Amino acid sequence: MIATLLIQHEKLEQLPSGGTLSPYGVHQKHGQITSQALQLLSSQRRQFSNTYISVKLDETSGVAVMKLKRPPVNSLNMELLTEFAINLEKLEIDRGCRGVILTSAVPRIFSAGLDITEMCGKNADHYGEFWRAVQEMWLKLYGSSMVTIAAINGSSPAGGCLMALSCDYRIIANNKKYTIGLNETQLGIVAPFWFKDIITEVIGHRAAERSLQLGMLYSPTDALKIGLVDEVVAEDKVQSTASAVMAQWLTLPDHARQITKSMMRKPSLDRLVTHREADITNFVSYITRDSIQKSLQMYMEMLKKKGR
Ligand SMILES: CCC/C=C/C(=O)SCCNC(=O)CCNC(=O)[C@H](O)C(C)(C)COP(=O)([O-])OP(=O)([O-])OC[C@H]1O[C@@H](n2cnc3c(N)ncnc32)[C@H](O)[C@@H]1OP(=O)([O-])[O-]
C-alpha cells in the first residue's frame, strides 16, 4: 500500500524534462507553452485519492482540502492513519501548498476516533505498530508548518477530536446531534499524556481535567463555550467558512507564522518524540490487560446493538 502511494506521489513531481506529470497528463515544458495554457495550468486543481483519503489541491490559492472517506464512521485504522501521514507529508513538501482544510466525505461523521477493532483481540506486535501509526499521524498534523483548519462536519469523538484539536482552527456544524470531545474514560480507557497535553493547551487545565475525567462529549454550542472549537456555523457554511478563515490566515507571511507556530507547539512535540518508545511500550502493556480488552469488547458490542 505504501509503495502504491509513493508511486502516486512520484507522478506529481517535476519530471527530469521540466514537464509536470499530473492526473491530467504530462504537460509541456514551461518555455514551450502559451500564456493562455499557463493561466489554465495555474488555476488547475491537483487531485489524488487513496483508499481512505482524498486530496484536492487548488494551486491558485495554495489550499488543499483533505477528506477522510472511510464509511460508515471514518474510524482510524492503520491503513487510514498511514495514508493520512503520507498525504500530509506530500503536501508539506509541496511548495505550492500553504494550507490544509481537514474534513470528512462521510455524512454526519467527522471521525469516530481510533478503530477499536485495531485495539481488540490482536497481538502485542500489532498494538505496537498501530500505536506508532497513531503517534505518526499526530506528529505530522500537530507539527505541520502549513495552516491547518478542521472543518468538522459531523461527530468527532476521541481520536477524531484529537485530529481536530491538532489543527490551527476548528469550525463545527451547528447540529445538536453532533458531539465532540475526548471520551476515552467512557470506554474504560485512558487518553495518553499527549492527548491530555493538547486538550489542556486548547481549553485550559481546569476544563481539560473535568472533560477528561468524565470523558465528556460536547454539543457544538457547548464546545464553543469551553473553547474546544473556534466557531459554530450552519451546516452548509462549514466549508465556505473554512475557506474564508484560511484565506485570512494566509495573508500573513509564512515564515513569521510558521516560526510562531513551531515555538508554541515544539515543547509538546518534543515530549512525545523523546518518550515515543516508552509511550508505545506503555500503550501495549496497557491495552493487552484482560480488563481493558473486556471493556473494549463490551463497548464494541454496545455500539453494534445500538446500530441494529
Ligand atoms: C488509549 C487509546 C486512546 C483511544 C482513542 C480512541 O479514539 S478510542 C475510539 C473511541 N470512539 C468512540 O467512542 C466513538 C464510538 N462511536 C460512536 O459513538 C458512533 O459510532 C458515532 C457517534 C461516531 C456514529 O454513530 P452512528 O449511529 O452514525 O453509527 P453507529 O454507532 O451505528 O456505528 C456504525 C458502525 O461503525 C462501528 N463503529 C463506530 N465507531 C467505531 C470505532 N471507533 N471503531 C470501530 N468501529 C466503530 C459500529 O460498531 C457500527 O458497526 P456495525 O454495527 O455497522 O458493524
UniProtKB/TrEMBL annotation:
Family, similarity comment: Belongs to the enoyl-CoA hydratase/isomerase family.
Cellular component annotations (GO), alphabetically ordered: mitochondrial matrix
Organism name: Geotrypetes seraphini (Gaboon caecilian)
EC class of the enzyme, as a word: isomerase
Pathway entry: Lipid metabolism; fatty acid beta-oxidation
Gene Ontology molecular functions: delta(3)-delta(2)-enoyl-CoA isomerase activity
UniProt superkingdom: Eukaryota
Function: Key enzyme of fatty acid beta-oxidation. Able to isomerize both 3-cis (3Z) and 3-trans (3E) double bonds into the 2-trans (2E) form in a range of enoyl-CoA species, with a preference for (3Z)-enoyl-CoAs over (3E)-enoyl-CoAs. The catalytic efficiency of this enzyme is not affected by the fatty acyl chain length.
PANTHER family: ENOYL-COA DELTA ISOMERASE 1, MITOCHONDRIAL, ENOYL-COA HYDRATASE-RELATED
Main location: mitochondrion
Protein localization: Mitochondrion matrix
EC number annotated for this UniProt entry: 5.3.3.8
Reaction it catalyzes: a (3E)-enoyl-CoA = a 4-saturated (2E)-enoyl-CoA; (3Z)-dodecenoyl-CoA = (2E)-dodecenoyl-CoA; (2E)-tetradecenoyl-CoA = (3Z)-tetradecenoyl-CoA; (3Z)-octenoyl-CoA = (2E)-octenoyl-CoA
Lineage start: Eukaryota, Metazoa, Chordata, Craniata, Vertebrata
Name used for this protein in its record: Enoyl-CoA delta isomerase 1, mitochondrial
InterPro entries, A to Z: ClpP/crotonase-like_dom_sf, Enoyl-CoA_hyd/isom_CS, Enoyl-CoA_hydra/iso
Binding partners and assembly: Homotrimer.
Pfam families: ECH_1
